[in-house]
Design goal:
With 979 residues, the chain is an alpha+beta fold. The protein has 4 domains: 1-160, no CATH class; 162-290, no CATH class; 301-343 and 378-625, TolB, C-terminal domain (Neuraminidase); 664-977, Porin. It is built from 14 helices and 52 strands. It is globular.
């Protein structure tokens, strides 16, 4: 095993888990419970008990089916966490061969998503994530690799084979083959991928696994990967593809490409190119069929040219404005804005274009000027940027001046919700209307007094009424349906009335287990409802929208690898298709009596089109159905039983989570600091995935120069609101043998015990940790200096940020006051007591993608303390920064470069991706000023399996310029555990 592969695995783990550490996926202080079955441990909090126990039964069913289907099974018990951190559908699996686990997000998908076509969200999610584990977490048949993987998590991680498209594509393939649903058999997805292929925009083989700023790039591993794998099975056989998975866990070590090429006639890349050619050929033939009865006169015309991710279009009451959410992915992150366009033509742009062409021809009559675009982009009247990366969803007009929209809010750790906000356009004022309401899609009554919405909490979906009355704004005033794990509701749309009276009914789409989505019209004050007829054999269904008089209902349905806009006329009971299927249509909107706006997806994103209903190629649909029963003829003969929410407590035992399933690993890290020393650290670490209780013992040694050596231990409990930590250490340091200038203290020995209690608080913009720390230590050196020290400190770690996307500012303070006593201070004629403070103030701001930050650091001790502070050195598993308040660590300097009792540092930095370009001035009282500048970076992770939790990578290069001394260049790269 190459060291580079292990390092790559570590870096991948830190980068891929970065979102989890930032988002705080799970709150370890909650009342966690465990339901343990024969093959699974399902962990949950009380709100998710029904979801969790039902999923436990589903897991055992899925496990047996996968075993029967491919003869593979996991021998390790799988830990599963039921969570809902974003109030959105998702999940993930971590395929370690000896410690596999997965997380299932309880919120179900909405009707327009790529994962909406399923027998049930819970079944789809369990199947998809468990397939990941079985596919990627097979134990190596090499005894030595298997044994090392059992003891060393990072090595186990490095053994995971396969590109992203392989793992996601295969899990998506089995989710479809074993249910007859899933992304392989989704009409809308097939229409999108065919559109990409007809535009020559299919991803290259290299791009299949890439997530970049290209439209839908992150989805291609699933959507195209599954179709390529299905093509391989159809052309070469299921057994040949299955042989690849057998080969890559063999005694002979192979990566995916080697495992693939050994059984297929060519490389995966070359066969993929053949697949793209055949798929595109079929897509072109399909386009000819779809366009048979359409022409330029009856097709939709481009109305607004956009790009990237477009959603939630909404016309104002007078149809003079169009609000639309635009999201772009760039190298600097994701930007989301709500733009309000004027619906009138942009005559100013047309006049400017004509004048530019005239000026060109005046200067050069023989020139050929640009032709006019299909449509000049309409004028943006108002723009609202997302705040604090909270997104903007589902805008709807309250009146001509006000839009209500949804955005994510943070109530506490692991508690993100979808809430409603109002935006008053003339004053650009935003006001939050609900708090922790979990409201997804909604519609507003014509009198502006209430909203009907789908609420989803703890996986339960229901339709509710929300008050907009000033006296009760944001309150749930009525539950229109019972909350349910079996039913999912979406797109509630109140029925307009021709006389302006309040609506008495509304349309919505809903799905139930083992059934397709249905379109219904329901009485607002009762349970009476009508099922709207749909095309026979339809599959995709979403985006209902009423005509202005409430007599016609438009919607999008998928049939035969295409999506079309349909029109149901209540007066005639007729169902008609009004688009041909050439475009991947979404979001129909009635602009006027005979004009319909809609979105259409292409390889660059979505555009807005205008359909003239008077000219549309209307096709009457006579073969209709009101049944939502799924047909499963697309599934394999061996398929999952019907999805069900069933609680069977007989298959397992419930107990308190406690300290969780403790899983241990060897830890091996290395640090190289050119200013001081290198250090190899070997230890053992144990903990649970929630990091509720974890501990580590560690032995450290500079194996090259024997400059530093020692041992440490740490134990942490985070199951209470107050988090507790204890850390002990012992190390020897030869200060005069370091690789750069330092005080000649000879050999020093330090040992000590550090205790901490910390209480964290977090809200939307502000986080505050209040902490108390105690330290007991002993110092000895070869110059017969020996003293003991005790200290107690209290402090605050506070962070505030405000981000308006185009600009943002953040501020942080970490400060503590210290009361201490040590023998060194007694030498100067006092009782050994002294006081002091340590702190950091950070201010950071950005304008668009340009960011700049400044830090001010200080450490101050009273005069009684003598020169107790030291400057220089680095943090490691052995030397935890917060356990050494008197050490002002700086990786570009050696330990004990300077000492004193008053230290200040000023730092300016510019973040550039994974590194900061920085300048620092170190100033210790009565010592020479030291300037340093260069680049440095840090990657941290606080969530995941034992081997990567608390793991940190530090790296950098700096030029060190001491006052009145020769400058030098120092560099460092280090891997350690930070507690």
């Amino acid at each position: 095993m190459k060291i580079s592969k292990i390092f790559t695995a570590i870096t991948f783990a830190l980068s891929s888990l970065a979102f989890t550490s930032q988002a705080e996926l799970a709150d370890s202080t909650q009342d966690w419970q465990t339901f343990e079955t024969k093959n699974f441990r399902v962990h949950f909090t009380p709100e998710y008990r029904q979801w969790a126990l039902s999923s436990a039964r589903e897991m055992e069913v899925v496990r047996q089916l996968i075993k029967d289907q491919q003869g593979r099974v996991l021998t390790e018990k799988v830990d599963t966490f039921i969570i809902d951190p974003y109030n959105a559908a998702n999940g993930f699996a971590v395929p370690l061969s000896h410690k596999p686990y997965m997380a299932l997000f309880a919120t179900p998908p909405q009707s327009d998503t790529v994962i909406s076509n399923s027998t049930g969200w819970q079944q789809l999610l369990v199947l998809h994530e468990y397939v990941h584990l079985v596919h990627l977490a097979q134990k190596s048949r090499s005894n030595w690799r298997n044994n090392v993987a059992n003891w060393y998590d990072i090595f186990d991680l490095s053994q995971i084979n396969g590109e992203r498209w392989v793992s996601e594509g295969y899990a998506t393939l089995l989710e479809s083959r074993l249910t007859g649903r899933g992304r392989l058999f989704n009409n809308q997805i097939e229409a999108i991928i065919q559109k990409f292929s007809r535009q020559g925009a299919m991803p290259s083989y290299k791009e299949l696994s890439v997530v970049n700023d290209s439209f839908m790039s992150g989805s291609m591993a699933y959507l195209v990967g599954v179709r390529y794998l299905k093509w391989l099975e159809d052309n070469y056989g299921v057994d040949i593809l299955d042989a690849v998975w057998t080969r890559w866990s063999g005694v002979e070590q192979r990566d995916f490409e080697a495992a693939f090429k050994g059984v297929f006639p060519d490389t995966a890349k070359n066969l993929y190119q053949r697949f793209v050619a055949e798929y595109t050929f079929d897509a072109m033939k399909h386009e000819v069929k779809l366009s048979k009865n359409s022409n330029a006169d009856n097709r939709s015309a481009l109305w607004l040219d956009l790009s990237d991710y477009i959603s939630g279009p909404s016309l104002s009451p007078q149809s003079d404005y169009l609000a639309i959410v635009e999201t772009q992915r760039t190298d600097d992150g994701k930007t989301t804005k709500l733009n309000v366009y004027k619906t009138s033509e942009n005559t100013k742009k047309a006049e400017e274009f004509a004048k530019e062409n005239k000026d060109i021809l005046d200067a050069d009559p023989q020139d050929i000027v640009d032709k006019a675009p299909s449509v000049f982009k309409r004028e943006v009247a108002y723009t609202l940027n997302q705040k604090n990366n909270s997104g903007i969803n589902n805008p709807r007009w309250l009146d001509k001046d006000t839009i209500i929209y949804g955005a994510t809010t943070l109530a506490s750790v692991n508690s993100r919700h979808q809430d409603l906000f109002s935006w008053h356009l003339p004053t650009n004022t935003v006001k939050q209307l609900t708090k922790s309401a979990n409201i997804r899609r909604f519609d507003i009554s014509n009198d502006g007094q209430y909203i009907i919405a789908e609420r989803n909490r703890f996986g339960y979906s229901q339709l509710v009424k929300v008050s907009l009355s000033p006296s009760s704004i944001g309150q749930i005033t009525d539950e229109l349906t019972q909350k349910s794990l079996e039913h999912v509701y979406d797109f509630p749309r109140l029925r307009p009335t021709s006389n302006g009276k309040p609506s008495d009914s509304f349309a919505y789409v809903s799905s139930t287990l083992n059934n397709k989505w249905q379109l219904k019209v329901r009485q607002l004050n009762g349970e009476q409802e009508t099922i709207i007829p749909l095309p026979e054999n339809y599959q995709f269904l979403s985006f209902p929208e009423w005509s202005k008089d409430g007599e016609v209902l438009y919607f999008v349905a998928g049939l035969d690898s295409a999506t079309r806009i349909y029109k149901y006329d209540f007066s005639t009971k007729d169902l008609s298709a009004i688009t041909s299927g050439e475009q991947v249509v979404t979001w129909p909107m009635v602009q006027a009596d005979n004009k319909l706006l809609h979105l259409a997806i292409n390889s660059e994103g979505s555009d807005v089109f205008l359909l003239d209903l008077a000219k549309a190629n209307k096709k009457l649909i006579t073969d209709t159905t009101i049944s939502s029963v799924m047909t499963v003829e697309l599934a394999d003969n061996l398929q999952l039983a019907e999805a069900a929410i069933i609680i069977d407590e007989s298959i397992g035992v419930q107990s308190a989570y406690g300290i969780g399933p403790q899983q241990g690993t060897i830890t091996i890290t290395e640090s190289v600091y050119s200013a001081s020393s290198s250090m190899l650290e070997v230890g053992y670490k144990s903990g649970d995935v929630l990091s509720r209780f974890d501990w580590q013992v560690n032995f450290s040694q500079d194996v090259f120069s024997n400059i530093i050596s020692g041992a440490s231990g740490v134990v942490r409990w985070q199951g209470w609101p107050v988090k507790l930590l204890a850390h002990s250490y012992l190390f020897n340091l030869k200060t005069n043998q370091q690789d750069s200038d330092a005080l000649a203290l000879g050999k020093t020995t330090e040992k000590g015990l550090f205790l901490e209690a910390r209480y964290p608080y977090i809200s939307e913009l502000l986080s505050i940790d209040i902490f108390a720390q105690a330290r007991v230590s002993q110092f000895d050196d070869s110059q017969n200096v020996s003293f003991s020290s005790q200290s107690f400190s209290i402090g605050v770690d506070q962070h505030w940020s405000y981000d308006q996307q185009n600009w943002g500012i953040s501020q942080a303070v970490n400060a503590q006051i210290i009361s201490a006593k040590d023998d060194l201070a007694k030498i100067d004629g006092n009782d050994g007591s002294y006081t002091g403070s340590n702190g950091l103030i950070n201010i950071r701001a950005h304008i668009k993608s340009y960011t700049f930050g400044i830090n001010y650091l200080w450490a101050q001790r009273s005069e009684d303390a003598s020169n107790i502070l030291s400057l220089g050195g680095y943090t490691s598993t052995l030397i935890q920064k917060k356990a050494h308040l008197n050490k002002q660590l700086a990786p570009e300097l050696a330990f004990y470069r300077q000492t004193g009792n008053d230290y200040q540092a000023f730092q300016a930095y510019i973040p550039l991706g994974l590194v900061d370009v920085f300048y620092t001035r170190h100033k210790m009282t009565e010592q020479a000023i030291i300037d340093s500048y260069g680049v440095k970076g840090t990657l941290n992770n606080d969530f995941g399996f034992t081997g990567v939790t608390n793991l940190a990578i530090n790296y950098g290069v700096a030029q060190v310029n001491p006052e009145n001394k020769k400058s030098d260049t120092q560099g460092w790269v280090a891997l350690s555990y930070k507690w």
